Automatic annotation (TrEMBL):
The lineage of its organism: Archaea, Methanobacteriati, Methanobacteriota, Stenosarchaea group, Halobacteria. Mn(2+) 2 binds at residues 239, 333. Monomer. InterPro entries: RtcB, RtcB-like_sf. Its cofactor is Mn(2+). This is tRNA-splicing ligase RtcB.
């Protein structure tokens, strides 16, 4: 099939897994959806395509607005969306980053095998749930005073290293070594700082989680070896973001844009796309505040990992270093970063907005840490708590097709409201434990219902498309053992 129609939107098939909404009217660029026909059918059922088309109205948007295979409807800008805008003549959009700035994932490897863990699942999930703060509101591993918050916002994981919560090796295996030099704590409001001070080292709620997994499949032995991964190995996946601090920061700047750049807002088809002109004072302040919130999120995940190491040490009665509990990588998937990309044969500095999309740089990009410079960036793609997750590596085609990006997860199929109507949390927990030996613990049954496996797209299909397009190459697949949620 060469064309597909969803309402008033027609997509033309460019090649396998690549569909284009042609540029017309006031669009500043065409839009592209990277999906199989099965995934495209699901993507077309909500407002994702309309939001993607709307995103092409952002000033200075370059090449295409892009939707990843896991795309679904978001606030203004679709989740699974990538939009690169000119950093000189374009704009930066808090709406195209989202409220949970630097929501992201990190994976920690161990030298434990699944056999080592059998029989301890219930003890481990209870201990993790008890030790790691989760759910709405406050509670963290540490509570920060004003000086501590500013230090975290300014320095990120360098603060965690000095405070004894991280190692040099942790920093070496984090995107940007866990610190954004462009961070400006003074551009983060006091209200945002107050919301974050008692949430440092916490999962939060919604789709955030900590999951103990085992490696079940290895697809590229050489890359897996470079990543320190092998079959039957136990790994830990952490998914959370900047908590109330990031949410308040986004809210603050959306409100300011409404007042200070109402003229630009009027030109956009959706106010949730609110953007500040590049090089404007507000754009510079938002970028500095966003980078500070990015640092906060990295520290948040680092403290959750630190507490996880302590729990494993207690449950397995040995030092976490003896279990070789090392950070594989930490990647952000709600972010806008200044990056240099080749456009029409010319290197240009762009704001690359990734909202529910993961950076996926191939070998050779200068931003990669030395450990992965020759193999490519690790990319972590969580599935649902009843399905597998994947570790990929940045694909060679990603720079040409997606500004070095791929999917960030399975992608939702249904809303949280619908999920709670279709699923009963306690039943989901029982079925996962009895049928698949997956131990889940959460603050409420409603949270489990909202995150039931049937709520999500097929992560295997999402990753297949990524792999076949060459934007993110399959390395290993993992499967849940224990999962804790807010």
């Amino acid at each position: 099939m060469t064309t597909r129609e969803f309402g008033d939107i027609e997509l033309r098939r460019v090649r396998e897994h690549v569909w284009e909404i042609p540029q017309e009217g006031e669009m500043n660029a065409p839009a592209r959806v990277l999906a199989s026909e099965a995934l495209l059918e699901q993507i077309g059922q909500d407002k994702t395509l309309e939001q993607l088309r709307n995103a092409t109205h952002l000033p200075g948007i370059t090449n295409h607005a892009i939707c990843m295979p896991d795309g679904h409807q978001g606030y203004g800008f679709p989740v699974g969306g990538v939009g690169a805008t000119d950093a000189t003549d374009g704009c930066i959009s808090p709406g195209a980053v989202g409220y949970d700035i630097n929501c992201g994932v990190r994976m920690m490897t161990t030298n434990l095998t699944y056999e080592d863990l059998k029989g301890k699942e219930a003890e481990l999930v209870d201990a993790l749930f008890e030790a790691i703060p989760s759910g709405l509101g406050g509670g963290g591993v540490v509570t920060g005073d004003a000086e501590t918050i500013d230090d975290i916002l300014a320095r990120g994981m360098e603060w965690a290293l000095d405070a004894g919560y991280a190692t040099e090796d942790d920093l070496a295996h984090c995107e940007d070594e866990g610190s954004r030099d462009d961070a400006r704590p003074e551009y983060v409001s006091q209200k945002a700082k107050d919301r974050g001070r008692n949430q440092i080292g916490s999962l939060g709620s919604g789709n955030h989680f900590l999951e103990v997994q085992r490696v079940t499949d290895v697809y590229r032995e050489d890359v897996a070896e470079s990543f320190g991964l092998e079959a039957d190995q136990i790994v830990v996946l952490i998914h959370c973001g900047s908590r109330g601090l990031g949410h308040q920061t986004c809210t603050d700047y959306l409100r300011r844009i409404e007042k200070e750049h109402a003229d630009l807002l009027e030109e956009l088809p959706d106010k949730e796309l609110a953007a500040a002109p590049a090089r404007s004072q507000l754009a510079e302040e938002y970028y500095g505040a966003m980078c500070a919130a990015i640092n906060f999120a990295w520290v948040n995940r680092q403290l959750v990992m630190h507490r996880t190491r302590e729990v494993f040490a207690d449950v397995f009665d040995r030092d976490w270093r003896d279990m070789e509990m090392r950070l594989l990588y930490d990647v952000a998937h709600n972010i806008a970063k200044k990056e240099v990309h080749t456009v029409d044969g010319e290197d240009r500095e762009l704001y690359v907005h990734r909202k529910g999309a993961t950076r996926a740089f191939p070998a050779g990009r200068p931003e990669l840490p030395p450990a992965y410079a020759d193999v490519g960036q690790p990319v972590i793609i969580p599935g649902s708590m009843g399905a597998g997750s994947y570790i990929l590596r940045g694909g060679e085609s990603s720079l040409d097709l997606t500004f070095g990006s791929t999917a960030h997860g399975a992608g939702r199929l249904m809303s949280r409201t619908q999920a709670k109507q279709e699923y009963w949390g306690e039943t989901v927990q029982e079925e996962l434990r009895e049928q698949q030996k997956i131990f889940v613990k959460a603050q409420s049954g409603a949270t489990v219902a909202e995150e039931a496996p049937g709520v999500y797209k097929d992560v295997d299909e999402v990753v297949r498309v990524s792999d076949e397009l060459g934007i993110g190459d399959k390395v290993v697949r993992t499967f849940p053992v224990c999962n804790i949620k807010g």
